[in-house]
Amino acid sequence: TPTLLWFRQDLRLQDNPALHAALARGGPVIPVYVWEESCESPAAEGARANDGWAAQPGAASRWWLHHSLEALDAAVRERGGRLILRRGDPLAELQEIVRATGAKGVYWNRRYEPAARARDARVQTELAAAGLDVKTFNSALLNEPETILNKQGGPFQVFSAYWRHCLTLPVAAPRKLPAGPIPAPERWPRSLDVAALELRPRVAWDRGLAQAWTPGEASAAKRMTRFVAGAIDRYDEERDFPGCDGTSMLSAALHWGEISPRQLWAAVRGRSRESGVFPPSNGARIFLAELGWREFAYHLLWHFPHTIEQPLRRAFARFSWAEDPEGRRLRAWQRGQTGYPIVDAGMRQLWQTGWMHNRVRMIVASFLVKHLRLSWPHGATWFWDTLVDADLANNTLGWQWSAGCGADAAPYFRIFAPVLQGRKFDSDGVYVRRWVPELARLPDRFLHAPWTATAQTLAAAGVRLGENYPRPVVDHAAARAEALAAFRQLREPP
Ligand code: FAD
């Protein structure tokens, strides 16, 4: 009898435990993806729907999903199968496919976001009550959140202790899909075309994304191989410099499960085969710890689900945010028109490619929360809509870290100075010149603070402040002082 394999954020065939188990069960395997608008977005997680949280998954994520589903369908077809696509309520769709095919098993890999967990629990209960063989697996994490507890039996809230603990645990080897076809049923249930899921934008703004990315398992595997064979050993030195390709750029592939952390771990381990030293370099050690931050983010989301919309550190709920009645500050930030070149470069990279370098994510996030004093959910929702790697766990951790209100966060009083950050991490200006071309001809020493250049220098570089590039939307020193004052208020009893 057939087994339904319910794909979700595990869009790959290799190292896919649910697929392995479905094959091992014997009989035909029917791969299914159900597009359900409501369950994937923060709005559905109970977050505020009125101040910008998209009612649906972000537009850039949907673009990625469209192409990843196409790639998955092609890979399944190469093995004689087919990906059945549906839209609507997953339980109803799965039940209908069960009826149509006589399937007796439904297998899937687990998700950890609060709304998805609640939904999955309901689906599992209903299907099991109908007598089906329902099994779920871990495909996305090295360690699932509930399995890692501190000595007191509670969740970790400090990364270093969390990761030290994780490093004592074994990492399972990834499993290779056996060669040969995926057994097909006698008749396939009906399926939609990928286009019918309407994941692609109606207005074609996605050219930059298409130029930057090739979603899908095969492309992720290539990216991993290239990175682990090269840049990983320089990761400790290069990962903070947005002008060089020093990071893996695998975040979207990890989010959608086109590649698993176990596969990455094994690839790094493979590099140690000759030397016997693991990790094979300091770069590799730090890279693995970044995967650890991803694990930590899921750990926090699982144990503190309210952090999607509320600060983990409750005192921050009283923080006095700036007024921005016409949304002028927020728009300047979103559009990369703040007048601070490193901030603008990051926001434009995000808009055009759906991705931003981690160092610059920290800079723009700090700028929004501390210089503009706009609350972090404004930033989280914008990221949610524009990132191809938008991920509820990582995004929440990243924003709460930047705002100083999360677990193991940067202290609020440490305020990134955008000019100094630019000079330090983009000293030759490669990054800013690429994304803010109107400043490209400015000499390096003025590039990160164009307003400090003389009128003559600006004219020679074709920069007209206030016309083709904005003056700073806030003054750094004044904004810093105001942010610190707001923070001090927080520490005084209400
Ligand atoms: P690499 O440096 O190659 O790291 C490898 C992988 O480790 C990444 O793909 C990612 O899965 C994980 N990772 C790396 N750094 C972090 C981190 N700080 N926290 C959690 N996981 C990490 N990452 C997302 O995947 N989705 C998000 O929505 C997201 N939002 C963020 C928001 C803010 C404000 C900040 C400061 C960071 C955010 N990050 C997010 C984390 C990080 O910026 C990205 O994971 C990273 O830039 C992706 O590039 P990469 O794949 O080249 O990373």
TrEMBL record:
Top enzyme category: lyase
EC numbers, comma separated: 4.1.99.3
Domain Photolyase/cryptochrome alpha/beta: 1-142
Pfam family, one: FAD_binding_7
Cofactor note: Binds 1 FAD per subunit.
Residue numbers binding FAD: Y235, T247, S248, M249, L250, S251, F287, D389, A390, D391
GO biological process, one term: photoreactive repair
Record site: Electron transfer via tryptophanyl radical: W321, W376, W399
Cofactor dependence: (6R)-5,10-methylene-5,6,7,8-tetrahydrofolate; FAD
The protein, known as: Deoxyribodipyrimidine photo-lyase
